[in-house]
Amino acid sequence: MEKEIFALVGFWEIMLSIFMQWQAYTISNIKTFSVQSWILGIFLLWAGVFHGFIALIILALLTIITRAIAMPLYLGNTIRKQIYRARENKHRISTGLSILISLLLAVFGYLVYYLILAGHGQSLVSIPITLMLQGAFLIVSRSNAYSQLIGYLVMENSMFLLSFLFSELPFIIEAGIILDVLGVVVVAGLLMRVRDEDIEKEEELLG
Amino acid sequence: MLNLFFLSILQLLYVFALAPLAVGILHVFDERLSSRRGPSIFQEYYNLFKFFRKQSIYPKTASGFFSYVPYITFGMYLFLTLVLPIITAFPLLFGPVVDFVGGGLVFGAASTFLKLASLDSRNSYSILGTSRASSIGIFTEPIILLIFIMFGVISGTNNPYVINNILQTSTSWFFSLVHLFVGVAFFLVLIIETGQLPIESHTPNEFGSIDSLMSLEYSGRELALLKWGSYIKSFLLMNVFLNVFTLPFFVPMKFNILAIVLYMFINFLKIILLLAIFAIINNIVSKYRLFKIFDYILIAFSFALMAMVVFYVVNGG
Amino acid sequence: MIYLLPSISATLGAILSFSLFRNKHKEVSVLASFLALMFSIFLLFEPDSFTAFFYVDSLSKIFLLMISCVYLGVVIFSIGYLEHSHGHLVKSYQYFSLLDIFVGVMLFSVTLNNFGLFWVSIEGTTFATALLVASENDIAALEAAWRYIMIVSVGLTIGLVGTLFLYSSAHTLSITDLLSRQNQGSLFFLSGMLLVVGYGTKIGIFPMYTWLPDAHGKAPAPISAIFSAVLLPVSLYPLIRFFEVYQNPSLSKFAFVLGFLSVMTGSIMTLNQRLYKRLFAYSSVENMGLSLIGVSLGSYALVGTIVLIFTHAFAKSGVFMLTGNMLHELKTRKIEDVKGLIKIMPKTGLFLFFGALAVTGTPPFATFFGELLIVSKTINYYGWTVGVALFFFLVCGFLFINYRVINMVFNDETKPVSSAKESPFTFVPVIFITLAAFVILIVPIFYRFIEGVIK
Predict the structure, then answer these.
(1) What is the ipTM of this complex?
(2) Which end of chain B, N or C, is surrounded by fewer C-beta atoms within 10 Å?
(3) What is the pTM of this model?
């Protein structure tokens, strides 16, 4: 039963990250990420209540508060203060190709599980691996700073799923992870300016 | 044997007669949701009768092929009504002629004939409609094939009747993730095939130009047959979606006249429910730019491919 | 508990200079760093402690000493450097408090006994330093800081997956428990590879080093100094502990290959550089690649690594601080615009020359001795071909860097410019580079000191 629900949650997260490749506006990416974190948080909360682990319940609540509510609000506010150029979500490769590559990464994630990790875990491990690869691809395929940050946060979400399947890390470390990610997002929010498209040809950054 | 023959005739008449009514109801829902009165629900019948009474005109540059195609496609759609599960869940007399993949190919053949005929008419707008419909059609074919293959994986067969039985009786397959993803993929393809928003629009304000341009040069009886054929195609696809995939309940699995007649009403109620959902979607989204349709198709493809990955992950590598 | 004293003093300095003593933040920071240094020297003579929370042995103490020395030097130099800070992203007191908290977290992390907490603290240094890298507030600096955050965070996520696999296969994360177990199994190996890749991003190993030249090139000079000198070796520290816990020839080979490729990349890319700070950044990549090779080989190569790291800390930070001088007075970042440094700024020019010799591994400096140990162990373990190839790339790096530096320092074809003013705090890099020369005298003490760590 828990396996089924985990598969349900995991695969909807993967579909949501494929949706993120489809979106044209940055704010839609942030909203999709918020939905993804809500699903993750509610799933962790349910699992904690089901098993009776207090630590998991607290962790789930922390996840919901930071990742589903606070971070999207903060990032959304930062976008509204920027000029309009931050709103469009420029792709480096075309939308269709990036959706297709995300999809192939899903198959590839299953392949990675099958070849490398087959002895160590259940087949559900391929879901977080796929999500991590898709988060990484989201970073690679965009030149918009907000989308890259969302890609990084998707990777952190997948870490939570992975730690749910393998043994749980000790509570203090998981709390440390959440706080660290929060710190990175805050600093990134302070640093994000509208990045020039020709930044790659700046002489000081070449070579 | 004779029972099956009569049931086949009954099914044919059912689809034949009620397809324009379904499309009429959809138009009325659309208009009512936009706070307009809309036409009466029998308007499509009046249109068809009007077209049958008119004279057919053919373009000078068209060949004889142009005039035969509407009959051929209409015949193909009628053939399909005999093989798909519409009012029964056991195969009727002509059930074993084609399976699911064959059914999909016959749909494809019918639309190919229509495209060839509209190319034959040499009207630039018809050619435009053909090229658009072809490019979209190429990309939806893999999705349909993947969906059928996934159902073959689930049920071990390609027979739509068996799939219906399995989904009716086994709750674990009905509530499984594979079924959900395939259902979503088929819903997205259904929107493309029946020509709803966000792919193509039919309202007076916006001119959808994918399917409606292909029949531009037809008039009179041929036009009536083409239109009726497309209504039957929509009706059949919606029925397949509902009966085989989503709500395969109450479909009678044994031969029982009362159950079958009752089911005809229930089936029509299911169709109306689906039409209501379509109408709501039509009033929420706006039409996509042409190039965004391909991204939409890719999302539908993602759902279908993920269903395969789900199957391998959940049911063991 | 006393092992936390250096970290506590740095953190207190951060908090105080942010809140109460804003006007006197420079003095507070200097005091905090001086206290940290005193505590570190005092801790050298304390016994080792292996409790549930702390794992302090001689390696940790050497790291503590190194971090606090460089910290003191950087704080003093920053006082002079920030006189010229106009339009910076962070104000002066914020700069000092960020610097303090960054060093405090690093001082904390080398005393820990838990791989998970290693990860947390090393990730924690990311966001303290990102704002510091972006200080100059122009587009290229912001871009460099953004690349730094993204690449390092993604890399550390991979490291987190490695830590997770470690926990799942050993059910414990503390070093003391791991040392007493027999660690084997493919999940352990997988976690080792992921940890090497993950922490390798922060260290600057091929192919994850790409943030390093950008961040070092655009950050202010004291920040580049403390990055190269301290941040990179502290990110190597968990890997040293991991290799202590788990010995596996394939994993060592994997780390060796990555380190070798970093050395190769570092030396070759220095040929094509046009900006002097990026030149020294690639030299850092090369040195860190060499350190990873030493860590993967173990035994006396590990001694060589520690000698290399210790000397490199002093020499590289000195060099970067001198480049800060150059930037302020000559106002150009390009190598070709800098000519005849020895006439314009005599102290800077001379010690830049010595510092470049030190970082590339020239005899009287102890880096040479460290590199010698590492290369000899390589020859011993992998044969003559690999060792000679490694040596060849080191020689390449040596030639290219010193060619550029000599062009900058001694070449005075152009008409002589009037001598420029050097920063009053130039004595700091001078002292550091001189110290780098004298480290070779204490190498035997090193060897006895860290004998317990070597297997």
Answers:
(1) 0.90
(2) N
(3) 0.88
